[in-house]
Amino acid sequence: MIKKLKALFAPHKQEKNNFSSFFRHASPEEQKRLMEDVARKANQDQRDLVEQYKQTSQKPA
Predict the structure, then answer these.
(1) What span, in angstroms and rounded, lies between the C-alpha atoms of 35 and 44?
(2) Which among 6, 34, 45, 61 is placed 20 to 30 Å from 53, CA to CA?
(3) Three-class DSSP labels, 23-53
(4) Has this prediction a pTM greater than 0.85?
(5) Does residue 31 contact residue 23 with C-beta atoms inside 8 Å?
(6) How confident is the model over 19-39, as pLDDT tens digits?
């Protein structure tokens, strides 16, 4: 019971999140570079999926 009360009233340590920490502390140039890289990779993944779909849909049944 005492452990539960201590856990309830003890100050909670906030977990650090690398993602949010990066955006709080990174320069705008670094943030822009990261977002452009993520967008470029996502775009390439989408192109690859479309190409893969085209190749599978063109095969004779």
Answers:
(1) 14
(2) 34
(3) HHHCCHHHHHHHHHHHHHHHHHHHHHHHHHH
(4) no
(5) yes
(6) 888 888 999 999 999 999 999
